[in-house]
Structure formats: C-alpha cells, structure tokens
From TrEMBL:
The keyword Cell membrane does not apply. ATP binds at residues 14, 207-211, 283-285, 331-335. NCBIfam families: ackA. It comes from Kosmotoga olearia (strain ATCC BAA-1733 / DSM 21960 / TBF 19.5.1). The record marks 179, 240 as: Transition state stabilizer. CDD domains: ASKHA_NBD_AcK_PK. This is Acetate kinase. Homodimer.
Amino acid sequence: MKILVVNCGSSSIKYQLLDMKNELVLAKGIVERIGIDGSRLKHKKGKEKITIEKVISNHKEGLDLVIKTLTDKETGVIENINEIDAVGHRVVHGGELFASSVLIDDRVIKEIEANAFLAPLHNPPNIQGIKAAMELLPDVPHVAVFDTAFHQSMPEKAYLYAIPKEYYRKYKIRRYGFHGTSHRYVAARVAEILGKPLNELKIITAHIGNGASIAAIDRGRSVDTSMGFTPLEGLVMGTRSGDIDPAIVVFLQEQEGLTPKEINDLLNKKSGMLGLTDGKYSDMREIEEGAIANDPVCKLAHDIYEYRIAKYIGAYTAAMNGVDAIAFTAGVGENSPYLRENVVKKYLGYLGITLDEKANDCKSCEKIISTPDSKVKVLIVPTNEELVIARDTKEIVEKGIKELKLW
C-alpha cells in the first residue's frame, strides 16, 4: 500500500509518499508561498533534490503539481495516480469530537469546519487541502489524523481551566494540547528502545522545536500537556511567549492601546526567544551559539528557555507520581546536545539521573543518553509524525476493507 501524507498550512503543503510494505519514504517535499510571489515546489527523491518554480495560486494547484511531480517520468516515483492507495491528512484541531483518526466523509468535513473557530490559522488550510485532494484523488480513501486527538485522554482535572464553567460549555474553552502525533510516536519508540511494554511506563516526552510542548504519558495515555486551548500556552518558544500572567494582556491593551489582534500577534509572533533577545533571534541555533560565547542576552534567553523545560518536567513527574523515561525530540530536542546537557545536569539530578556525555554528543540520532545506572532513562528519539499519519491511514483503510468483505 502506497500512502500520500499531506500537511497543508496557510501558504504551504508538506508531503510524503510512503510505501507501507516496508514503511519506506519514496519521495517528499514542500510547496511554498502558495498565493504569493515566488511560489515553488521543493521535491526530494532519494538523494536527488529538485526545485520547480511556478505560479501556484491555491492549494488545489499546489497538490496537482505534487501529484504531477510524483508521476513524472524524470522526477516521479510512481507511474500514475492509481498507485496511490490512500491519503492521510494532518489536521491540527479535532476539538472534543475526535479522540482518534477517522475516515473522511462529508460529516467529518463539516465537523472539522465546526472546529475551525478553535484553530482559525490552521484548520481552514487543512480543510482546503482535504477538499482539494479529494477532488484530485476521488477514488481513494482519505483519512484525518488530528494533533489534538492523543491528548483527549486527559482527565478533567488536567484539561479544565478555573474560569466560569459556562464558557467551557458555551465555547469549549479547555486545554486541548497539540503535537499529539509526535508525542504518541516518541512514547511508543521509547518503549521499544527500552524493551518494555508501553502500558507499564511513565514517560515524559519533550517536543522541543520552534513550537514546543511537553507531555506526561502514563502507561500509553496522555494525562497532561503544556500547550492548552491554543499552542501559545506552556514553554517559551521561538516567537511565542508561553505561560504568562493573563492580566498582562489587559495591562498592555490599556497602556499601549493594543487591539485584540495586535495582542495576539505580539504574543504569538514577537515574543518568546525573539522577544527576549530584543527582536534579534528566534532561531535556537543562533541563540545557542551566542550563549556558548557568553553573549549576555543570548545566555539569559537560553537560561529561561531551559528553565521552563525543566519546570514542566518536574511538574509532570509529580503529576504521574514518578517517571521512568524522559525523551527529547523535534528540531532542537534532537539536535542540541548543549540544551539536553544543561536541562539534565542543572535541574534533574534529584531524579537520580546521570548523563552519559559521550552518548549525548550527537545530533539527529536515536539512543539512550543516560548512564546504565541512571534511575531514570533519558533518550533522544527523532520524531516521525508523517509515519504516524501513514500508519493510522493504513490501519483505518485496511479495517474498512475487511469490514466491507465481511459484510
């Protein structure tokens, strides 16, 4: 079975074509700047990289170009679209309606649209991508895989906010959490690496990238996570503030005369590491270089960044009454020995963790980086959200075919 995985942003489409016989990525790429000058497709087939510059006005045109590139005699990896057996779509917000991945039909599309008010920047382009893909590939099943679904196992004590409950009933204001496919994949890999059943482990997964979140996974179920009603809550991120006193919003509106939209832009696009470095840096590689060189601005920003990570790890250790393993993943988590060492050595010694510095000195590797006698295992696990989407799609499609034959 060959599955096309699609992740549509407001002006981009990320894609992978996987052969699920051996879970091999046949090709992958990104369509950039949709509806903007300079639109292009960057395509990778094996070690070969191809860039196609072309006017791409909308998501349907972008997906059409993806399909043509995948089936082209020179750039492609399949002869025609009939070799694509199913399409898996990343959808950011499933609200309370979706606790698992689902086969897409008209009802599902309407329910995703109904949740768009919860993720106005993400769900609308996700929906555009689904509709475009279903027009271009009408004869194959399409599956929606939700970022929020994995965290639907959180108990009320973790997901409810202490505001009048009528706003939860009226607007569904609660903690949802994001990066669910990443946290689910990493937790499962931790169990495999340790050679223990997932349902016997307490795991903290730290998805640390430009956007970042931490999850407490107790015996395979998410019981808490740092992102909340939106991806703004929680850790300090590249341009997002993370946790702040909510009264700051009202204060800035009054003192600076800011509109709700301006406040939203301030907290999402001008804060975090960018704000802490006076608008100079949001890329952690630059900030880390500065911190290592003892630049005081970068050093302080990095100290705040790692401190917040450590606080959440401590909180989630308490929430689960213990922890067996901590896993770092995503762009920064996988590629920064400096961050991992600082977090572990400065803050996690009380857990009986000792770091193997030689093992930690690597990037984009999958391994245990704590010493054999460490009471809690610490790991690096590269995330693979596309593989989770492809696996869910395969499982749902095969289950549907089996049920159809039985009927």
